[in-house]
Amino acid sequence: MSYFLIKNAHILDPARDREEMGCLLIRDSKIVAYEGSVPPDCEVMDARGCLVVPGLIDFHTHLAFGLGDAGIHCDLMTLPNGITTAVDAGSTGTAAFEGFVRYVIPNCETRVKAFLHVSAIGVTTELHPENADPDLYDRERIRQLFERYYPEQMLGLKLRMGRGFTRGQGVGPLVAAKEIAKELGCPLCVHVTDSEVPYREILGLLEKNDILCHAFQGKGYTLLDEGGRIHRAALEARERGVIFDLAAGRYNYDFRILGSALKQGFLPDMISTDTVSTSVYRHLLFHLLYVMSYCLDAGMPLREVIRACTAAPAKQMGLKGRIGTLEPGAAADIAVLRLEEHPITYEDCYGNQVKGNHLFLPMATIKGGRPVYKRIEFEFWNGQ
Fold first, then answer.
1. Distance from CA of residue 375 to its chain's centroid?
2. How many CA atoms lie within 13 A of 327 on its CB side?
3. What is the pLDDT of residue 381?
4. Of 16, 26, 117, 321, whose CB has the highest number of CB atoms within 10 Å?
5. Which DSSP string do the residues of 9-54 spell out, in sequence order?
6. Rounded to whole angstroms, how far apart are CA atoms 374 and 361?
7. How far is residue 94's CA from residue 266's CA, in Å, rounded to a whole number?
8. Element (H, E) at 346
9. How much is the pLDDT for 383?
10. Which domains does the chain have, with CATH numbers?
């Protein structure tokens, strides 16, 4: 057996509403109860001054590296930023999903799950959108893939809606996609930006565990009604169990919408990035820790920021208690962060700005009980 101890840790585990100073003990690949003594030959990390949280989960990414324009090389984006689990949000449809599962996911150190795009070609290129015509959905192939891989790899179906995608088809593509999702008994993740139809029509079709991603986008119809209040349809959808995912992207969040929603107590259920190859580590998005930082400075409580990218997505994935928590018996997936005071101005694609004073900095990442990333200065800085 091998042991690894993180001491002097500011432990924050929203899944158990636990926040305290203490030690975290790992045996092999699992977290175990720490009873005050250090096992022989135990490796020790001093996390003094750091926040120790469950390994982060980025619930909306595009990871089909080599299968399309948008695909990111997963581990280069995840592990250095405290992310131990990531979800591909429908990069591939029926035409390429098996290639993604067979040749991309097995080469990732990061735990990867995926949504299947209802369009056969998925999100192959940014030069033009997929065809959302329901007559072109390969229903039989979708069913075959779910029977073969669900629930091991597949979390549900994905659909993109809006003037750039559905082009005058109204809710037709959504109705058809929802019909397939019901047959398969899986959630539907719906991208809505610059919608041609009001949110009430879209949200009215979504059920428990379905996901509205890019929930705080600001083009065309938004979550706010004409009076600037959260739409009644959104409130009713949340009561039914519909999940609202920030899924920031480069162009799919608006600080005016997010700020107003936070003031009204309407927080994102999940914080994710929608990173693609042309946005990771670049202006407006960077990575998950940057998105978490501006959510914190926009007024979201620290515990809720951490919950939205740990416990909440773990529950949505059906992995509650296994990941997204630091409880004994859970996978030893851990992010060691430093929350640093740092004046910064965040800006969205509309030019709206948020003045902030915090940045989450990644210090170390542990995946399955093994350190997979550690900043070089952390070796000298900790314990001093």
1. 23
2. 13
3. 64
4. 117
5. EEEEEGGGTEEEEEEEEEETTEEE---S-PPTT-EEEE-TT-EEEE
6. 11
7. 35
8. strand 334-347
9. 47
10. 3-53+328-381 (2.30.40.10), 56-316 (3.20.20.140)
